[in-house]
Amino acid sequence: MIVQRADAPARFLNAADPSAEWACLARRGMLHSECEAVDLLRLGPGATVAHRPAEGVEQALYVLSGGGEAVSGGTVRPVGPGDLLLAPHDCRLTVRAGETGLELLTVRVLPARTIGRLPARIPELPEEQRMECVR
């Protein structure tokens, strides 16, 4: 798996809002699992990130620092460090950063209904690249 450092340059989530940054730590092609991506999001005050059913993934969002609110189905809930938000594939969820901003670690995975239709993905290296485990 290829992992990018969290302090590496980030991209903007929305070009119109430079206070919302995104850094991909690992992506599907790098992961031999049903994981779509592992991302680090840094939202400036008032910036938002949305989870939409059309994206076809489920998502876990873990609040690392800062504060804000999560809005889903008309319910508004405050969020802070240590909170975990779970968004099923058919969920609409918006996370808005509060006045101190918000830093999130997200893991996006394929839903169970999709995983059940896929062949198993097992990483295999050519024999010459394999290392024997020394115990």
Automatic annotation (TrEMBL):
Identification of the protein by name: Cupin domain-containing protein
Organism name: Streptomyces aureoversilis
InterPro entries: RmlC-like_jellyroll, RmlC_Cupin_sf
Taxonomic path: Bacteria, Bacillati, Actinomycetota, Actinomycetes, Kitasatosporales
Top-level taxon: Bacteria
